[in-house]
Amino acid sequence: MKKGIVILFAATLGLAACNNYKKGPGGLMYQIHKSGGAEKIKEGDIVKINFIQKTEKDSTIVSTFDLGQPQIFPVGKKAYEGDMNDVLYLFGEGDSATFKLNLDTMAKHSGQPKPPANAKDTYMVFTVKIEKVLKKAAGEADSTFQKKAQEFFQKDYQATIAKAKDSEAGKIKKFIEDNSLKTQTTASGLHYVINTPGSAQKPVAGDTIMLNYTGKLLTKKANGKDNIFDTSIESVAKEAGKYNAMAKYAPRPFTIGAAIPGFDEAYQLIGKGGKITVIIPSVLGYGEGGQPQAGIAPFSPLCFEIEVVDIKKPSAQAGATIAPIAPAAPATKK
Question: From the DSSP assignment, how many helices (H) and strands (E) are in the chain?
Fold first, then answer.
């Protein structure tokens, strides 16, 4: 789905969602914005859904539209009136809708408190688009249906991956043009703009490099804001809705070789005090696997704003230390 369509879709549903809700079981509220006219979802169907999950104050918690990663899962038996499975029975393939799950009902039946993001809310709000519903034919064996579903969605996934791969170069070109960036390109394919070159001292192997950075996807979120997935800067994290109270927001230490290749290459182009903007193609990033935990889909090019805050040289004592027999586990790739 193209960015403009996503934004229009989300905005249209956001306006429509303010009115004309119908009451469902268990305190459920729902509204169908567009009906595909298909048979309703039943227990045992396998569905492919795009959704936006929000708080009652319209704060987005997660959006598969932004991430480009629709969810695929089997529809289970409802555990109680008004649960997530129960609401899906109201919709069919091609439907778009907004529904509100009653959190008091959920807490009563699950025995769990409300999610932190919805602690003061009565409802958890979802806007959904039912992309595909795979139904079991009458008399069809479970094993046959499961095999059919696996083959179908594997083919669908491969088509999505191929599309992402083919469109990557165009995404990079458009991002550079839209942001009027006068980039240079390294032999590896890294696109960069040095905003501040910094000192003559540049990072070398063995140094500990203290970095401030913000990483984002090249596509905007449905609300038009930058799609930030990680940052070392507290104010940026809060603005992007990515704040984590357990995280330490300050310049973070890196050593050469501990991050994805494009990130490692980028900060070595500037000295202490330097700042650089880089566009990292997926071959220098997370490649065909992506980074699902961070919301990075396969073949996603990335943009990083990086500042080299400090370069710490290894001490003489550290340099004289005998290396351990077994190498330490590598740091998580950035």
Answer: 8, 14
Q: Tokens 């090019």: give the residue.
A: 301
Question: String of b and e for 23-47 (b: at least 16 CB within 10 Å)?
Answer: ebbbbbbbbbbeeeeeeebeeebbb
Report the distance separating Cα 255 and Cα 330, nearest Å: 10
- pLDDT band of 315, cuts 50, 70, 90: confident
Token representation of residue 75: 């529809």
3-state secondary structure of 187: coil
Q: What is the structure's pLDDT at 295?
A: 87
pLDDT of residue 325: 38
**Eight-state DSSP code of residue 52:** E
Distance (Å, whole) CA 88 – CA 279: 40
d(CA 67, CA 1): 11
Residue for token digits 């193209």? 2
φ, ψ (nearest 5 deg) of residue 157: -65, -45
SS3 172: helix
**pTM of the full structure:** 0.75
196 forms beta bridges with 275
